[in-house]
Amino acid sequence: MSETPARGADLTQARNLVTSIPGPRSQELMARKRAAVSNAIGTTMPVFAEAAFGGVIRDVDGNTLIDLGSGIAVTGVGNANPRVVAAVSAQLEAFTHTCFMITPYDGYVEVAEKLNQLTPGDFDKRSALFNSGSEAVENAVKIARSYTGKTAVVAFDHAYHGRTNLTLALTAKNQPYKSGFGPFASDIYRAPLSYPFRDGNRTGAEAAKIAISQIEKQVGAENLAAIIIEPIQGEGGFIVPAEGFLPALAAWATENGVVFIADEVQTGFARTGAMFASELFGIEPDLIVTAKGIAGGLPLSAVTGRAEIMDAPQTGGLGGTYGGNPLACAAALASIDAFEQDGLIEAAQRIEQQITSAFLAAQTTDARIGDVRGRGAMIAIEFVNPETGEPDAALTGAIAKAAHNQGVIVLTCGTYGNVIRFLPPLTISEELLAEGLSIVLDALANA
Ligand SMILES: *Cc1c(COP(=O)(O)O)cnc(C)c1O
């Protein structure tokens, strides 16, 4: 590694490979990882990062890679965003921790005020801050149970809500998330989703009717505390439900005294070309869970929602040692400034155009591209066997691997492992994104 500390801001926003991937230093560090880190923690890329800025990551061998994953939709404002660096550095000098439950500080309150103001719904709101998406999802369920006095929770097919015990019960996919880790939290039920590419383009109203009928038959509204759903599913494959599906579910929940929770951990904060994906579907969730993009890379998450629901649990019933850490709050406030003042919602919309037009053009001559979907800077390509329409996970893995070898970080997802997902930083330049996309398209052509 270089002798002076690496500075992200010094990086040129261009791909540059000086060794094969992985280079010798990364290989050395991978060997140390294998000897020191639990084998259960996997890595997408075999390279170790040394510095990152905007849309590039430089590895320890001096290769500069194009980042089309944002550390799983986290660095929406760009890695080491100058606003975030300045705000966190200033907070670091002031104080690092007091515990908000002991000696509160204004950054936490200001983040709560911003969340209450920015999330959809023109009603009185409150927020509570936590550390991870999973922790916030768990707390949303606690809050809904406390408010309703009921216990059952419904999640959906292909859902991903985290890796803690309760959130694993909500998460749908067995491998690698759940296998061997049970028993899981009880009173969790699964309902069918609207998945236009695989349900014959059923309308949203029809899909909602099927889901609601199953919920009524198998759970009963009188037992149901909450419905939790990702407005656009993340790990499940960027599945965009048919128009009308989410509003019908939300209306049924309201009519039946069920708390409607939107898990916007992946879709939140300008990612989908709106501040929150719920806006795209015209819904106003009772509770919204946020994390990932909220704080430019610092660990922070939140539950925001109707004041009467958020205030239902007893004082002291929610919290945690680190929840709403002052550095993370400073980062969140700086990130929110960036989303609002640096045109990042519009940037996400431009990114949608650029990615979808590239792959829709390719789809006209390549039937392996089954579906191009998503919103904003959250776009997925689902690969299939052209003859059978069956998911093609092997092709998807080969494309990702070839792109990685060429210095482009892309992620896969989907219940069937046959989806490449693009989650670039919203600050990525058009040229850098174009280069990244052309490498992925070449990888597809050669696969
Ligand atoms: C990542 C994610 C989570 C879990 O967040 P962690 O911070 O990893 O615990 C929950 N819900 C959704 C939709 C996610 O994408």
DSSP, total strands = 15
Query: What structural class do you assign from the helix and strand content?
Result: alpha/beta
Shape: globular
Radius of gyration (Å) = 22 Å
Name the CATH superfamily assignment of the largest domain. Type I PLP-dependent aspartate aminotransferase-like (Major domain)
Strand order of the largest sheet: 4-10-9-8-7-5-6
Helix run count? 15
What CATH calls the topology of the largest domain is: Aspartate Aminotransferase, domain 2
Describe this structure in words.
- The protein has 447 residues and is of the alpha/beta class.
- It folds into two domains: 8-81 and 343-446, Aspartate Aminotransferase, domain 1, CATH 3.90.1150.10; 84-341, Aspartate Aminotransferase, domain 2 (3-Layer(aba) Sandwich).
- The protein has helices spanning 24-36, 70-73, 82-94, 106-118, 133-148, 165-170, 174-178, 204-218, 245-255, 277-280, 307-310, 326-341, 344-363, 393-405, 430-446, and strands at residues 49-53, 56-59, 64-67, 125-130, 152-156, 188-191, 224-229, 259-263, 287-290, 301-306, 369-375, 378-383, 408-409, 411-413, 419-422.
- The strands form three sheets. The protein has a seven-stranded mixed β-sheet with strand order 4-10-9-8-7-5-6, with helices on both faces. The protein has a four-stranded mixed β-sheet with strand order 1-2-3-13.
- The relative contact order is 0.16.
- The mean pLDDT is 97.
- Pyridoxal-5'-phosphate (PLP) binds next to helix 5.
- Keywords: Aminotransferase, Pyridoxal phosphate, Transferase.
- Belongs to the class-III pyridoxal-phosphate-dependent aminotransferase family.
